[in-house]
Amino acid sequence: MTVPRLARTERIILNRLTQGDEFALRLADRSGGALKRGTVYITLQRMESKGYVESKVEPPAVGAMGRPRRWYRTSAYGLQVLNAWKLAENAMEVGQ
Prior knowledge:
elongated
């Protein structure tokens, strides 16, 4: 079995999303600078196309301006990929 590729930013996002649903700007703001606002949207779109995350758009509020937020959560597959990477990291640390 091959473990799917998981970029550093994707790992950060998956780790954050295991704590609960988030929207893109909040992910960036709460990352301590690890995620940039300009790339978090692109990364989330790529992750959704890979099946790592799922999203839903919140219902628009009456009188609200702008676009409604898109909330993201880790998919079952994304959680499996993240756990596989954690196991691989732990195995490599034990071997050192």
